[in-house]
Amino acid sequence: MPAASLLPLFGSAAGPGALGGPAGGGGGGGGAGGGVRKAAGPGAFRLTEKFVLLLVFSAFITLCFGAIFFLPDSSKLLSGVFFHSAALQPPPPPPGGQPRAPPQPGGGPAAGPAAAGRGSLARIRADHERALREAKETLQKLPEEIRGDIRRDKEKVAQDARGRKEPAASGLPQRPFRPPVGAAGQEPADPAVRQRRAKIKEMMKHAWDNYKRYAWGLNELKPISKQGHSSNLFGNIQGATIVDALDTLYIMEMKEEFKEAKDWVEKNLDFNVNAEISVFEVNIRFVGGLLSAYYLSGEEIFRKKAVELGEKLLPAFNTPTGIPWALLNIKSGIGRNWPWASGGSSILAEFGTLHLEFVHLSHLSGNPVFAEKVMNIRKVLNRLDKPEGLYPNYLNPSSGQWGQHHVSIGGLGDSFYEYLLKAWLMSDKTDEEGKKMYYDAVQAIETHLIRKSSGGLTYIAEWKGGLLEHKMGHLTCFAGGMFALGADGAPSDKTGHHIELGAEIARTCHESYDRTSMKLGPEAFRFDGGVEAIATRQNEKYYILRPEVIETYMYMWRLTHDPKYRQWAWEAVEALEKHCRVDGGYSGIRDVYNNHESHDDVQQSFFLSETLKYLYLLFSDDDILPFEHWVFNTEAHPLPILHKEDGSKEEKQKCKHRREDKAGPTR
């Protein structure tokens, strides 16, 4: 509204005495014209005064609204301006008509409210000036600098958030670290063997250095594209290659590389992500890798991270039967199964491959819940009837009943059987339930699945509703080492038979390599249609740096010292160097029967964790990671055998602490 239009409004409202003039001023009965003229001077003065007051009032309103909306921390300003003003009012008179105390000289209680008001205004003024100064500095920066500041602020917030979680980890029980047996062995005495082992270490360095150069902190490497590769198996968790390679770096004594990997884990490995992960893959690679790194090095960060991740996996067991989901959102705790898995079933090789890691999580954390979860899986399985004594690959976690009757010792079933045997070994051979389940299963496998080809090759077929499919997967080749490793616990009349069975599987798998153009094995090979140990379908001819054949060679070498296993392993090394090595690392092959390489451009994390580790152990003496003290999880992460004396000592220590807690503090 224009200022001029306000004058009549204000003027008409005010009488002669409105601003303190005399009540009867202006003359009572003089003429109208004369009266108006006589009052012109004072009236004009009052209108001007009102106009000035209006301007002051408008400025005050503008200042207040500006302060509320534009000064930093407006809520503090509101409370300071509007609510603190009550403190500036004189206090009410005391009850009973008692006189108020006079103001105290020198800033006594009566002076406090005024001082507080001045302090609030000073703080507001300082905040305002700081905000203006920061805004001016920001406007003078380049866009790249502003984006960098934002990124650093985000990183600081993330680090602070991780730091706030530190006290939870301090709840882990104190555990004295014992130097592990066989964490590093002697140099091989044979110069030729020593030279071959050095070559395998150089392969590890080539794989690691290129991962570090092109994909550091990401899950895996694309060695052709020279960039990072991520799999949805890990959700938003990063660093799969780093965690998977920790123990390989350690036993190869690559100390600088191990330290940089440990530093990355400490500063960057974060499980607080809103993402769906594969419980199986995260367990065997991340939990297993962290556990073995702790047991080898004693670095507490690995124990803390392993237990933290284990706790995040526990909601996967929240099913009617306790059989865990295959997939889990580790933030929401919501799980589900693969949509293709027999009507929403869980998979035998996935829920059956948690036992070793979860028993060790209970051992290191003092929390029995981890071991209880995996022992419950056995209870569910032992209540079920097994068709022909075999374990189908699918089990519904809601009904607790088998899905379709498909049995495989390769994909979908493989590591379940491996973990039955290794659970018994890891318990220092006290887990009688695991032992019985394993040897009963082996007997059913021999009866219904193991066959011999017309050419004399022993293979393990797949069983589908009572019918055999004469196909054997690369994954199934691990079974040769498993049979040999379990020979010592078999009935005395079967010990030699189990070793022989392992040797026959090793020979068959070697033939699957030897019958390709590249001397590397296909994903699956068949024994029908007139072929033996050859892939006949295009989608089975690829090789993705898998370790299972070399794994069996390693076990057979350790248990028999037959030199052919080292020779077969060296043939695989030569093929890897010739066909899979590229400038940026190692890549899988799309067709091992083709004379020309077609690379898949992925360096799998298990190549560093399993393939190269097993090769290194093959060309090392038996004193490194001896079988009397270690078992390997299905990702080749070594976990120590929990010897009976260790358990009794720890139980005594717990009992002692409980007695001390009950007795109270002592002097």
Automatic annotation (TrEMBL):
Residue ranges of the region described as Disordered: 89-120, 136-192, 643-667
Compartments it resides in: Endomembrane system
Binding, Ca(2+): T634
Biological process according to GO: carbohydrate metabolic process; ERAD pathway; protein targeting to ER
Cited Pfam families: Glyco_hydro_47 (PF01532)
EC code: 3.2.1.-
Main location group: membrane
Reaction(s) this enzyme catalyzes, per UniProt: N(4)-(alpha-D-Man-(1->2)-alpha-D-Man-(1->2)-alpha-D-Man-(1->3)-[alpha-D-Man-(1->3)-[alpha-D-Man-(1->2)-alpha-D-Man-(1->6)]-alpha-D-Man-(1->6)]-beta-D-Man-(1->4)-beta-D-GlcNAc-(1->4)-beta-D-GlcNAc)-L-asparaginyl-[protein] (N-glucan mannose isomer 8A1,2,3B1,3) + 3 H2O = N(4)-(alpha-D-Man-(1->3)-[alpha-D-Man-(1->3)-[alpha-D-Man-(1->6)]-alpha-D-Man-(1->6)]-beta-D-Man-(1->4)-beta-D-GlcNAc-(1->4)-beta-D-GlcNAc)-L-asparaginyl-[protein] (N-glucan mannose isomer 5A1,2) + 3 beta-D-mannose; N(4)-(alpha-D-Man-(1->2)-alpha-D-Man-(1->2)-alpha-D-Man-(1->3)-[alpha-D-Man-(1->2)-alpha-D-Man-(1->3)-[alpha-D-Man-(1->2)-alpha-D-Man-(1->6)]-alpha-D-Man-(1->6)]-beta-D-Man-(1->4)-beta-D-GlcNAc-(1->4)-beta-D-GlcNAc)-L-asparaginyl-[protein] (N-glucan mannose isomer 9A1,2,3B1,2,3) + 4 H2O = N(4)-(alpha-D-Man-(1->3)-[alpha-D-Man-(1->3)-[alpha-D-Man-(1->6)]-alpha-D-Man-(1->6)]-beta-D-Man-(1->4)-beta-D-GlcNAc-(1->4)-beta-D-GlcNAc)-L-asparaginyl-[protein] (N-glucan mannose isomer 5A1,2) + 4 beta-D-mannose
UniProt KW keywords: Calcium, Disulfide bond, Glycosidase, Hydrolase, Membrane, Metal-binding, Signal-anchor, Transmembrane, Transmembrane helix
InterPro entries linked: 6hp_glycosidase-like_sf, Glyco_hydro_47, Glycosyl_Hydrolase_47, Seven-hairpin_glycosidases
UniProt name for this protein: alpha-1,2-Mannosidase
Organism: Anser brachyrhynchus
